[in-house]
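hey so u asked for the seq, here:
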Amino acid sequence: MTIGQLAKRTGLTSSRIRFYEEMGLLGEVERKPNGYRTYSEETVVLLELITVAQNVGFSLEEIRTLLPSGLNHWNHDALTSVLLKKVSDIEVLEAELAKSKGRLLDIIAGIQEKPSHLDCADNTRRILGQILKSGVGDNPPALTGFWQHVATDSQQD
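ran it, structure tokens below
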């Protein structure tokens, strides 16, 4: 099939298919004597696998290492191991996101519960001081330095 037919079957653009080919994800692509690419049914499956893998968080480099030389040559143990590792990576990311969400909710609560005697700048210092006290080690170094400065300033006021 031609690249146009393949694009229509997979929903991918011709340029995306050529990009995957250049990245070495499609293996050897046959060419007709006139130089036109010709693709097999296996290429449709490969492109669908690539799309699914990208949608669940795999990079193209990771996908390259996962794809077998042919669809009949899967190393199921290695594939299962890589997929389980990706699940583990996602779980770590979920935990980090949950922690970030908790921090943001704490900040929102601090903003909403601003004591009436504080102006916005003082409330900001109050909130950041609370964040600083609750776990400096969890904060990026640049922000930690900033928060320490803000907390110090608020103590001096």
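Residues 141-147 have pLDDT under 50 and may be disordered. The CA atoms of residues 67 and 73 lie 9 Å apart.
lmk if thats what u needed
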